[in-house]
């Protein structure tokens, strides 16, 4: 989308008024923004599932879990120096999160400008609860990402913070005495689940699933994928909380 910026008229050497060609500010179209949001969302979803599978290794015991964590740090060596893979991954994920937030914000603002007068009665939307919680869910998830980095990545707020023993860090993190951490973790993961559910369903409708049968199928797939993610992630803290993992 291009926006013409008006430029003040000037006078040439002969004293005549000259109107210069207006500068054009190029803005990405809504279609481009939706593509960026979709691609960034897919990257984040793939990471969440791979990360979940890695987290579930905690049920194999401390030795296996610690070995997996150390393997991630050495992934790519000797082609990449120690820890470089993780930092590259973090950089890509950070860009994906920022792109997802930015495109969502811009599209929301454009939608409001396109409809300056609010509806007297808001129509009920499929998956409306997830849709209404998308914004606040995103805030919760963003705060959780910051806490998660300070907790299990840098060890700043972790009771142990020992980089050589990730298993012990996780167990200490979700100990019964730190129930508030488990509660915050639960809220964040449930928010991710709702976000994923609404995102997958909306993407399916955008891609052409407009029939009643197609929408039912999309809702089922979105619900299953979201439920698997939520159960997979929450199984770790609650297993620590009840003593199945210690």
From TrEMBL:
Instruction: Spell out where the chain crosses the membrane.
Output: 31-50, 84-109, 129-150, 179-200, 221-245
The entry's protein name is: Succinate dehydrogenase
* Gene Ontology cellular component terms for the protein in this record: membrane
Q: Which organism is it from?
A: Actinoplanes cyaneus
Fetch the InterPro entries from UniProt: Cytochrome_b-558, SQR/QFR_C/D, SuccDH_FuR_B_TM-su
Recall the GO molecular function terms of this protein's record.
metal ion binding
Q: List the SUPFAM superfamilies.
A: Fumarate reductase respiratory complex transmembrane subunits
**Keyword match Heme:** yes
| Keyword Transmembrane helix among record annotations | yes
Query: Which Pfam family is an annotated match for this chain, by its short name?
Result: Sdh_cyt
Where is the major localization of this protein?
membrane
């Amino acid at each position: 989308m291009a926006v013409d910026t008006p430029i003040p008229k000037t006078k040439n050497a002969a004293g005549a008024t000259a109107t210069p060609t207006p500068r054009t500010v190029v803005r990405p179209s809504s279609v481009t923004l939706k593509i960026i949001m979709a691609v960034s969302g897919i990257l984040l979803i793939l990471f969440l599932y791979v990360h979940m599978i890695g987290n579930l290794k905690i049920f194999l015991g401390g030795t296996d879990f610690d070995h997996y964590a150390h393997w991630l740090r050495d992934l790519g060596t000797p082609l990449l120096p120690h820890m470089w893979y993780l930092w590259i991954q973090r950089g890509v994920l950070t860009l994906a999160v920022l792109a997802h937030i930015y495109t969502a914000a811009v599209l929301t603002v454009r939608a409001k400008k396109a409809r300056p007068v609010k509806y007297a009665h808001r129509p009920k939307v499929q998956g409306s609860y997830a849709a209404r919680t998308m914004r606040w869910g995103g805030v919760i998830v963003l705060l959780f990402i910051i806490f998660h980095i300070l907790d299990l990545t840098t060890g700043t707020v972790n009771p142990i913070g020992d980089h050589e023993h990730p298993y012990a860090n996780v167990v200490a993190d979700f100990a019964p005495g730190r129930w508030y951490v488990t509660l915050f973790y639960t809220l964040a993961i449930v928010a991710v689940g709702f976000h994923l559910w609404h995102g997958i369903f909306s993407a399916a409708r955008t891609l052409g699933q407009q029939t009643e049968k197609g929408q039912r199928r999309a809702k089922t797939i979105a619900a299953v994928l979201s439920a698997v993610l939520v159960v997979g992630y929450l199984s770790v803290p609650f297993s620590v909380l009840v003593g199945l993992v210690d």
